[in-house]
What does this fold into?
Amino acid sequence: LKLVGAAGLTVAGNIDVDGTTNLDAVDIDGAVQLDGTLSIGVNDTGYDVKLFGATSGSYMLWDESTDDLILGGAAQLGIGTTAPAKRIHIESSSDANLRSIRLAYDGSYYNELIQGGAAGLQFNAVGGLLHTWAHNGTEIMRLNATGLGIGTTSPAYPLDVTGAIRATTQL
It folds into this structure.
């Protein structure tokens, strides 16, 4: 069957193309090539789209009820790699911007986690110039333009510690 131009096809019932078991209204066993845009639903009236992988239980799901993209089972996300080694794997040997994660409030305030090659892991804050570390919601350390504060939220020296300090060798 070949449709050309403005021709249409109206089907009452199910369509089974070269298959053995009809699973739904349209069941195609074999490769499908689309030379154009595939639209499922219309704006504000979408549908779930679920793609299954070769590993049992692995899938990628677009859940229209929450507008979430979900990887299920053993599925992994590779950005810049065709062989992801972890759930999320970002790789680029040539550009640090392509192996970074940005968490943004807006275009003026954001943080970036960058894999800097031989330089190791870098953390970059833009806008607020403030890094805080917390444990169970309680701030334990703060780094700002003045210095590193441990036990204080306003370090006044390059290293500002509130509380006792223990050293195993001479300071």
Remarks:
- The mean pLDDT is 81.
- The radius of gyration is 26 Å.
